[in-house]
Design goal:
alpha+beta; two-stranded antiparallel sheet; 6 helices; about 260 residues; single chain; seven-stranded mixed β-sheet
């Protein structure tokens, strides 16, 4: 007797009959573009195969904001807009060096974890066609100004449909910064074959009790999603806490 293959869950959902929505009111059908179809399949596959854990923390970036205000003008002299995303990338690369299981992929077929010795980070870019994640290569080898310039150029090319396919590949972890839009927190989905993604929400002024009094501080909410098959909860908490401390005291990355 020949065993029947189990049906692909993605195909099964596609075959599932929807109700006739037009009976409730006017509707319009629009075909999904190629990017949206790819996103839908990849995100669903990642959600179904990766056991996600979500970790949250906050960083006091008041000193970082002062740094951006002070040295942003230096970048402008060189035609570069200094951004917090570039700083996040630089610190994230250092975090990957200290926590190598985050800079990895799982090979379940061979029961191995693949630890990568290079530091490529994907950055989510919002486009009118959908979310794309171009990859900044060798982040650890570039200065913050170099990263700021590359980020700006890559985001522009991505939105103008000039990004090359190979520039969307080879990332070890992803960074999704929604701070420019708003929100307090979110839980991004890990991009397989990565094992983690870092989400950044909008910084807000919050009262923090320091030296016997409340002081207004700029607080940045962070969300870390990771694959529980490769990373345990304690390691996830340590990773995000170290990242927050490095944002608050960048000299920590030099230790």
């Amino acid at each position: 007797m020949i065993a029947q293959k189990s049906k692909d869950p993605l195909s099964a959902q596609a075959d599932e009959a929807l109700p006739n929505f037009s009976q409730y009111g006017s509707i319009e059908r629009q075909p999904l573009n190629s990017i949206r179809k790819r996103i839908a399949k990849n995100v669903q596959a990642s959600w179904q195969t990766i056991p996600h854990v979500f970790q949250f923390d906050k960083a006091d970036i008041s000193q970082l904001e002062t740094f951006l205000d002070k040295y942003g003008k230096e970048g402008e002299k060189e035609g570069v807009k200094l951004t917090i995303t570039a700083i996040l990338l630089k610190i994230l690369a250092q975090a990957l060096k200290r926590f190598p299981n985050f800079n990895a992929s799982l090979d379940m077929k061979n029961e191995e974890i693949i630890l990568k010795k290079y530091f490529n980070i994907g950055v989510a870019v919002d486009t009118d066609r959908g979310l794309l994640v171009p990859v900044i290569k060798d982040v650890d080898k570039k200065s913050i100004l170099e990263l700021s310039q590359e980020l700006g150029e890559m985001a522009e090319r991505t939105r103008n449909k000039k990004i090359k396919p190979d520039e969307l590949q080879g990332g070890n972890i992803a960074l999704s910064n929604l701070g420019g839009i708003g929100g307090t927190n979110f839980t991004p989905i890990v991009y397989s074959p990565n094992v983690a993604i870092l989400g950044v929400s909008q910084a807000r002024t919050e009262p923090v009790y320091i030296d016997g009094a409340f002081q207004p501080r700029q607080i940045l909410p962070l969300s870390l999603s990771y694959d529980h098959r490769a990373i345990d909860g304690a390691e996830g908490a340590r990773f995000l806490r170290w990242f927050c401390e490095a944002l608050e005291n960048p000299l920590l990355t030099l230790l």
